[in-house]
């Protein structure tokens, strides 16, 4: 028998049971599918996290872009503009916009008191501090336009300031000769800041300079204020309300206490007051179950109603805003300041909107629920 015939006559056999190879293949396939499924789940989780991160960053970009657009619209020459600060217990350095500090009539018209390190409003031509015995660390040569006043507080991050010498020029050039600079310096005292860079000179907060104008109404602060305007006539003790076809406006709110505080504060300068509060006046009507607020000039004219609807209180989208007439430009500024101090947010600084008219002085805010509000004076 040949070798080939011998090999062909031997039967192959294995100690492994029948079907072993098929079971092994199925097990390998199962483990492979499990690995693929786990990898897919891992990638899907990473993708979800990335999408959430992208969404958050996109929203932040839109918010910052909106704030930048609002800043550019309100001031073409101010590169670092913030909402006007309001007088409040938590911000004692900001003066009351309705009162002007007493004039120091006995002080020279070109000198005035300043913070400890700047004894006068910086003027390029003013003489140095005449007191030679003063502590050198607490005095500065104000005839030097680069005086940095190093002991003054530094500007905070994002704080809007202007060089003191520029403020001096604005005040002196746009006020009558009899205007007392000592009073202006007393007003600006809380806002003085040391130089941002060596040799740049001290600085002062722009919102205080703006507030000084609104009180004195003697010089213009470009670009927010373009021309001086006459003082408004005295309000009538019993204002006449013209007949209008519009009876009232109703808005949904999230929180009765929050909106009560906010609207009471912002509407007071506009001669609108809280004239109805369901929590203080129990009623048997169906509306008594919904906390309600009513505002108007008097009980006979309730022009704004607020209903607490909780999570169902959704503000209207772009294109809607509620505008109130203000008796004066000072009232517009107070409206904006009160909104900033009571939970609102800035949507447009007080100023003239020339696109609406040379006398269109307005401010725009958002209430705590996001409703767009405006106060405007066209006198």
TrEMBL record:
Stretches assigned to the VOC domain: 245-378
Natural source organism: Staphylotrichum tortipilum
InterPro entries: Glyas_Bleomycin-R_OHBP_Dase (IPR029068), Glyas_Fos-R_dOase_dom (IPR004360), VOC_core (IPR037523)
Positions with biased composition (Low complexity): 93-103
Compositional bias annotation for Basic and acidic residues: 18-28
Lineage per the UniProt record: Eukaryota, Fungi, Dikarya, Ascomycota, Pezizomycotina
Polar residues bias spans: 71-83, 107-119
Annotated Pro residues bias: 124-133
SUPFAM superfamilies assigned to the protein according to its UniProt record, in alphabetical order: Glyoxalase/Bleomycin resistance protein/Dihydroxybiphenyl dioxygenase
Protein name: VOC domain-containing protein
Segments for region (Disordered): 1-35, 69-144, 225-245
